[in-house]
Design goal:
The complex is a heterotrimer of chains A (339), B (291) and C (313). Chain A is 35% helix and 24% strand. Chain A has 339 residues and is an alpha/beta fold. Chain A starts with a strand and ends with a helix. The chains are: A alpha/beta (339), B mainly alpha (291), C mainly alpha (313).
C-alpha cells in the first residue's frame, strides 16, 4: 500500500513588506491510497494554507516555502515549474473549495467549465469532452444532466453548484481529491448529501480524499484518519476512532469539550476555548497552545514538545497527554467511542 | 523619559513629509511642477517682455537676446507669449475646476436627495452627455462675446454633468447607510444629519474628479484657442500659438513645439496628481490577485 | 430580449428630444439676425423680410422648434445659410472621412489597449505594469493635436511616409485612404487607448481576485487561457461601457484632428459652421451626433447581454 502523497517537514512563510507570518511549521503527513484523511482545526490554523501549498496555488510574491518536501508518486512538487504544476492540478489532484456561490465562473456554462478541464489534460475532442462532462454531472447526481450542460452557475442552487465543483475536480480521475471545507457554506440538510456524495464517489472511483474542516462531526462521520492542526503545527494525528476514544492533546480535548451539548458544563452553555489564536509573527520553541491550555505546566512553554507515539498509528505533541486522557475519560463523546 | 523614547523620537511633521516625499518622487515632482507653473503665471510680467506687440520687421527671426525663443509670424516674442500663455491655462483650469465643483456638488446633492428632481436631473445629464463636449463648448463660446469668462463658462458647462452624476451616486450610497442608522437613532431633523454625513463622503471623489476636470479644462481651452474660438487672437495662449504656428510648421516646427510641450507638461502634472489622490483615497488598496 | 431593446429605444426618445430642444434653444437665442447674414449688406428691408418669412423667423420659438423637429423626423434638417445646400446632403457628403477615421481609431485602440491592460493587470506592480501605466498617463495628458503634430512632423514632413494632410476617398483605393487616415487615427488612438488600457487593467485586477479564478487555476488551466477566457470575459462589461462613453470624447478629438490634418469630415463642417453662425448646420449636426451616440450606447447595453448571462436572466 503506497502513499498517494507525502508531505515532509513543510514550513511556509508569508512575507508582506517587513512582516513575516510563519504560517506552517514542520508539517508532515501522508495520504494513503484509498483513505480519507481529515485536517481539522480552527480558522487560521493553516489547514487551507497546507492544501493551497500542495497545489502550488499560493501567490509566489508573498508565500515562500522555507523547507520541506511534497512528493507525489516520485515527483517533487516543491519548486516545480508552473507549467508542470499545471499538468498535475485538476489532473492528478482535484480541489473543491468552500464557497460554491463564487467559485464558478458566472459567464460560462457549467458544461464548458467541466469540459475544459477534461480537454486540458486528456487528448479528447470537444464532443467527447462534453460527453464526459455529462457523465460527471450524472455521477454527482444532478438531475437532467443533458440539459444542465448549457446552464449557467447562477441558475443553480448552492448545493448543486458544489456538486458541479466536485464534478469538475473529479473529471480527470485524479488520485487525490482535496476538499477544503466543502460543506461549511451549505445548509445542514445539503451538507449531509454532499458528504455522502463524496464518500460514494470515493468508493466508486477509488481516489483518496484530504478533507479539510473545522467541524468534528464531519470528521467523525467521514474520515478514516485525522490530523489536528493548531497555529501552523500538527498537534495530534491518528485514526479517527483512536483520537476520539483517547484524545491526547490539550487542544484536542478543548475542541471535544467545546462541541455543543457535550461539554462538561451545564446543559445549554457553550464551553469556549478561552484566549485567542497566537499571532504567527515569531518562531517559538514551545507549545503554542500552552497559554490557553487547561493542562499546561511550566515545561510546556519551556521547549518545543516532541511528537510522541501514544499508541500504534497515533501520535501527539503533548507532554501532558496522559493527564489529558485521564480528564477526558468521563467526557460523553469519548465514552461513546470507547464502548 | 524611558529608554524607548530616546531610541525612537516621535516623528515630526517635517520628517514624516520628507519620508513620504522619498517614497513618492513622482508626486513631489508634479507638485513642484504645478507650483512652478503657478508662479510663472503670477510673475509673468517679471519674467518676460511684451507678448502682444507686433513687429512685422522681425517676423520669424531666430532666437536672440531680446527674444530667447525667437519670434512668430507677426514678429511677437515667442517666449513672452509662452510665459503669458500660462496665465490663460492656469486661470481656466482652476476656475473651471472650482465652478464645476460648486455646481456639480450642489446639483448632485439635490439630485441625490430628491426623488423626482433626481430623475429629471438624470435625464438632463444624459442629454447633455450625448452632445460631444468640445462641440458644446465651441457652440457656447461662439454665442457669447470673446473673453476669458466666456471660455471658462463654455468649458464648465459640458463638465458639470459628470460631476453631478458622481456626487449623486455618492449621495445615494450614503442614503442607503443612513436609512439604517436613522432607523436606530431618534429622528432628529434629517437635513443637518445628512450634511454631516454626506459632505465628508463626497470630499474624496469630488476632489479627484475636480483634478481631472482641471486637466480636461486646460486641454479644452487649448483646443478652443487652437480653433480660434473664444479668445481674441492677440491674447497669448498656448493653443493659439499652435494655431499661429501652423503655417510655418514645416520650416519652423519649434514654434509648435514650445507651447505643445508646456501644455503637455502641465496637463501631465495635474493628471498624475489626480491619480495619486485617487490612489490615496481608495479604501481598498492592496488586493492581491491570485495569479 | 426584444422587450429590453424596445425599452431602451423608447427611453432614448425623450433624451433625443431634450437634446433637440437644448441645441435649438442654444442656437436660436444667439444675438444676430440670420436673415441679415443671408441677405447680405446690400439687401433692401423688403428682401430681408422675405427671407425672414421663408425661414419662419417671425414665428414664436416653440412653433419654429416644432417645424424644425417635424422636418428632422423626415430627415430634412434645413438648409445651410452660407452654401444653400441641404444640411442632410452636407452631412452625407462628409460622413465618410469622419466615419473611416473613427473606425480605424477604434480598431487600433482596442487592439492596442485591451492586451496592454490585461498584461498590466497580470504583472501588476512590476516594471511592465508601471511602464504601461506610465504610457497611459502620457497618452491622455498630451493633447491630441500635440501628438498629431508630432506624428505629422516625424512621419510626414521628415520621413514622408504619409501625406501631411488631406483625405483620400475610399473610391480611390482603400490603401490610400488608410495612408491618409493613419496618422490622425494613431494620434486619436493614443488618447483613447490610454483610457481603455487603464480601465481594462482596473477591471482585470478586480476580476483576478475573485474565487472562480482560483478554481480555474486549480483545474490546471494555462495562464493565458485563464486571463482571456476566464478573466477578460468577466471584465468585459466595464471595459465595453468605457469604450462606449469614450466614443463621445472621441468625437471631440475627431473635430480637432480633422482641423490638424485638414480632413474634410463632419468635425470640420461643424466647427466652420459654428464660427460662421450657420445655425441650421449646427443644429443638424449636433442632433446627428447625439443620435449616433445614443445608438452606440444602446448597442453597448445590448452587448452586456452577450457578455454576461446573468443580465439575460
Amino acid at each position: 500500500m503506497s502513499n498517494i502523497i507525502d508531505v515532509e517537514n513543510l514550513s511556509l512563510e508569508f512575507l508582506s513588506g517587513e512582516q513575516r507570518v510563519y504560517a506552517l511549521d514542520n508539517v508532515s503527513f501522508s495520504v494513503a491510497r484509498g483513505e480519507t484523511l481529515s485536517l481539522v482545526g480552527e480558522s487560521g490554523c493553516g489547514k487551507s494554507v497546507t492544501a493551497m501549498a500542495m497545489m502550488g496555488l499560493l501567490p509566489k510574491a508573498s508565500a515562500r516555502i522555507t523547507s520541506g518536501r511534497i512528493r507525489m508518486a516520485g515527483t517533487e512538487l516543491v519548486g516545480l515549474p508552473e507549467r508542470q504544476l499545471q499538468q498535475i492540478r485538476g489532473n492528478r489532484i482535484g480541489m473543491v473549495f468552500q464557497d460554491p456561490m463564487t467559485s464558478l465562473n458566472p459567464v460560462h456554462t457549467i458544461g464548458m467549465q467541466i469540459a475544459e478541464a477534461v480537454r486540458r489534460h486528456k487528448p479528447v475532442s470537444r464532443t467527447e469532452a462534453m460527453q464526459r462532462a455529462r457523465q460527471m454531472l450524472d455521477l454527482v447526481r444532478i438531475p437532467d444532466a443533458g440539459n444542465r450542460l448549457t446552464a449557467y452557475p447562477h441558475e443553480l442552487s448552492g448545493g448543486q453548484r458544489q456538486r458541479v465543483m466536485i464534478a469538475m475536480a473529479l473529471a480527470c480521475d485524479p488520485e487525490l481529491l482535496i476538499a477544503d471545507e466543502p460543506t461549511t457554506a451549505l445548509d445542514v440538510t445539503v451538507q449531509a448529501q454532499i458528504l455522502e456524495l463524496i464518500a460514494d464517489l470515493k468508493a466508486e472511483l477509488g481516489m483518496s480524499v484530504l478533507l479539510i474542516t473545522h467541524d468534528l462531526g464531519v470528521v467523525a462521520a467521514t474520515a478514516d484518519r485525522m490530523m489536528v492542526m493548531y497555529a501552523g503545527r500538527i498537534v495530534e494525528e491518528g485514526a479517527v476512532e483512536r483520537i476520539f476514544a483517547r484524545p491526547s492533546h490539550g487542544y484536542t480535548a478543548a475542541l471535544l469539550r467545546s462541541l455543543p451539548g457535550h461539554g462538561t458544563g451545564r446543559r445549554g452553555r457553550l464551553t469556549e476555548i478561552a484566549g485567542t489564536v497566537p499571532r504567527l509573527d515569531r518562531q517559538l520553541a514551545s507549545c503554542l497552545f500552552a497559554p490557553r491550555c487547561g493542562f499546561a505546566e511550566a515545561a510546556c512553554s519551556a521547549s518545543l514538545p516532541p511528537s510522541r507515539q501514544v499508541e500504534a498509528g497515533h501520535r501527539s505533541a503533548c507532554i501532558r497527554e496522559a493527564a489529558v486522557f485521564d480528564a477526558m475519560r468521563d467526557n460523553d463523546i469519548v465514552k461513546g467511542w470507547t464502548s | 523619559m524611558s529608554l524607548a523614547d530616546t531610541a525612537h523620537p516621535a516623528p515630526t511633521p517635517l520628517s514624516r513629509a520628507l519620508h513620504h516625499a522619498r517614497l513618492n518622487p513622482a508626486t513631489v515632482i508634479c507638485c513642484a511642477l504645478l507650483l512652478g507653473f503657478v508662479l510663472i503665471a503670477i510673475f509673468a510680467p517679471l519674467l518676460a517682455g511684451d507678448p502682444i506687440k507686433i513687429d512685422p520687421a522681425q517676423r520669424l527671426k531666430p532666437p536672440s537676446d531680446t527674444a530667447i525663443w525667437g519670434r512668430d509670424h507677426l514678429g511677437r516674442d515667442v517666449y513672452a507669449r509662452a510665459v503669458y500663455g500660462t496665465r490663460v491655462s492656469m486661470l481656466v483650469g482652476f476656475s473651471v475646476a472650482i465652478l464645476v465643483t460648486i455646481l456639480g456638488v450642489s446639483i448632485g446633492i439635490y439630485a441625490g436627495l430628491s426623488q423626482i428632481g433626481g430623475a429629471v436631473v438624470m435625464r438632463l445629464t444624459d442629454a447633455m452627455m450625448a452632445i460631444p463636449a468640445v462641440l458644446l463648448a465651441i457652440a457656447f463660446a461662439s454665442l457669447m462675446n470673446a473673453g476669458l469668462l466666456t471660455v471658462i463658462i463654455a468649458i464648465t458647462i459640458p463638465e458639470v454633468p459628470r460631476m453631478v452624476r458622481l456626487v449623486r451616486s455618492v449621495v445615494l450610497g450614503v442614503r442607503q447607510q443612513l436609512h439604517v442608522t436613522a432607523a436606530i437613532s431618534i429622528g432628529t431633523s434629517g437635513l443637518p444629519l445628512v450634511w454631516r454625513h454626506i459632505l465628508p463622503n463626497t470630499l474624496g471623489p469630488v476632489l479627484v474628479q475636480a483634478t481631472y476636470a482641471c486637466a480636461s479644462a486646460i486641454i479644452a481651452s487649448a483646443v478652443l484657442s487652437f480653433l480660434g474660438v473664444g479668445l481674441s487672437p492677440e491674447v497669448p495662449s498656448w493653443g493659439g500659438m499652435m494655431a499661429d504656428a501652423r503655417q510655418q510648421f514645416r520650416i519652423h516646427p519649434v514654434l509648435m513645439l514650445y507651447p505643445g510641450l508646456l501644455l503637455s507638461l502641465l496637463v501631465l502634472a495635474v493628471n498624475i496628481l489626480g491619480d495619486r489622490l485617487s490612489d490615496a483615497l481608495d479604501p481598498r488598496k492592496s488586493r492581491r490577485s491570485t495569479l | 430580449m426584444f422587450a429590453y431593446l424596445a425599452g431602451r429605444v423608447l427611453s432614448a426618445i425623450p433624451i433625443l428630444l431634450l437634446v433637440a430642444i437644448f441645441i435649438f434653444s442654444l442656437v436660436n437665442l444667439t444675438p444676430g439676425d440670420p436673415a441679415l447674414l443671408i441677405a447680405g449688406d446690400n439687401a433692401t428691408p423688403a428682401q430681408v423680410e422675405q427671407i425672414r418669412e421663408r425661414l419662419h423667423l417671425n414665428e414664436p420659438l416653440p412653433t419654429r422648434f416644432a417645424i424644425w423637429a417635424g422636418n428632422a423626423l423626415q430627415l430634412d434638417l434645413g438648409t445651410s445659410i452660407y452654401s444653400g445646400q441641404p444640411v442632410t446632403r452636407l452631412i452625407a457628403q462628409r460622413i465618410e472621412p469622419t466615419f473611416v477615421l473613427a473606425a480605424v481609431t477604434i480598431i487600433i485602440t482596442v487592439l492596442l489597449a485591451v492586451p496592454l491592460g490585461v498584461i498590466a493587470a497580470w504583472k501588476a506592480n512590476s516594471w511592465i505594469d508601471r511602464a504601461i501605466m506610465g504610457f497611459a498617463v502620457l497618452g491622455f495628458s498630451v493633447p491630441v493635436f500635440v501628438i498629431g503634430y508630432l506624428l505629422a512632423y516625424v512621419f510626414s514632413v521628415n520621413l514622408k511616409w504619409f501625406p501631411v494632410q488631406g483625405y483620400s476617398p475610399l473610391a480611390d483605393g482603400p490603401l490610400d485612404t488608410l495612408r491618409s487616415v493613419l496618422l490622425p487615427a494613431v494620434a486619436l488612438a493614443m488618447v483613447f487607448a490610454a483610457l481603455i488600457a487603464r480601465v481594462t487593467r482596473a477591471a482585470m485586477l478586480e476580476v483576478l481576485t475573485e474565487n472562480h479564478i482560483r478554481t480555474a487555476r486549480a483545474k490546471g488551466l494555462p495562464t493565458l487561457r485563464i486571463l482571456i477566457v476566464h478573466a477578460l470575459k468577466n471584465a468585459g462589461v466595464p471595459v465595453v461601457t468605457v469604450i462606449g462613453i469614450g466614443i463621445a470624447t472621441l468625437v471631440g478629438g475627431v473635430v480637432v484632428t480633422e482641423s490638424v490634418f485638414n480632413i474634410p469630415g463632419i468635425g470640420r463642417l461643424t466647427v466652420d459652421a459654428i464660427t460662421r453662425r450657420d445655425y441650421p448646420i449646427v443644429q443638424g449636426v449636433i442632433l446627428f451626433f447625439a443620435a449616433v451616440l445614443i445608438v452606440i450606447n444602446i448597442l453597448v447595453d445590448m452587448s452586456y447581454a452577450l457578455l454576461d448571462p446573468r443580465v439575460r436572466g
